[in-house]
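seq as requested:
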Amino acid sequence: MKKIPIIAAVLILGSVGAIIAFAQISHKGGPMQHFAGGVAGHHEKMLEHLAAELKFTDQQKAQAKQIIAESEPRFQPVHDRLKESHRSTADLGTNGVFDERRARELATRQAEIIKEALVEKERTKAALFAIMTAEQREQAKQMMNHFVENFGH
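struct tokens:
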């Protein structure tokens, strides 16, 4: 049962990493800090879990690896921009003064970055679903629903 969140994360996030989590953490610390160094590190393990759970054929495994590999260079700059944006907000308000104009400016900038990441996530997810059989898609949807119900992402 512990595999389901990992598998669902791959489906939900494809190769774009835990972008919503990035939006909720700073560049240092937080429950998802192990993602802060880059997005590529965990994908291979998650892809292995996905392939095993959905019983991917060797051809599907190869296609999924290709999809992930192709999405990495598209997502990495987005990830880097989000990471930099989090650095920009780290000191905001630490002087005891709330600067609403600056907070809104940074929030708008982060929203644009998250929008780009969401588009890439959905592109990758669709590509992964395209290589699945109807049964695998249904199982993957159930795993995603389970993940959302239990983890709220």
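Residues 1-39 have pLDDT under 50 and may be disordered.
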